[in-house]
Amino acid sequence: MTSGYAVREAAGEEDRERCFAVRREVFVEEQGVPRELEYDTYDATAVHVLAVREDGLPLGTGRLLHGADATGRTGADASVGSLGRLAVSRAARGLGVGAALVRAIEDAARGRGLAAVDLHAQTHALGFYERLGYVAYGGEFPDAGIPHRAMRKAL
């Protein structure tokens, strides 16, 4: 438990629904990402992490793709996982939830024998990921109409 919340791998359908609720709030409602782009087939096999308040309220989420699911995003390197769908509810921002989620995803990647984690960061979040050790590479590109850059961190 950190500052009134815990971060863990999602376990079961109820936890996954909590993850999806945070993503809906942040990406679909706040940022206007079309629902059909936010949820994809990778959700079925991804490792989802969840930050929850002591009373069970979901505060944030993220996911890790690995193996064949990640290779399309990471340059066909099976030793690199793909961090994505990192979202923190408006009420929980500034509490360290995002950094705790990234650390949990990195731990999940290490536990699966991965050597690095790749991600596509919204450009406004580059500084956040840089503070956590990620390095940007390549040019800016749009994803769901939002500017992004690819980043990577060796584990």
UniProtKB/TrEMBL annotation:
Keywords: Acyltransferase, Transferase
Top-rank taxon, per record: Bacteria
Alphabetical list of InterPro entries matching this protein: Acyl_CoA_acyltransferase, Bact_Acetyltransf, GNAT_dom
GO molecular function terms noted in the UniProt entry: acyltransferase activity, transferring groups other than amino-acyl groups
A Pfam family the protein falls into: Acetyltransf_10
Domain N-acetyltransferase: 5-155
PANTHER family: AMINOALKYLPHOSPHONATE N-ACETYLTRANSFERASE-RELATED, AMINOALKYLPHOSPHONATE N-ACETYLTRANSFERASE-RELATED-RELATED
Protein name: Acetyltransferase
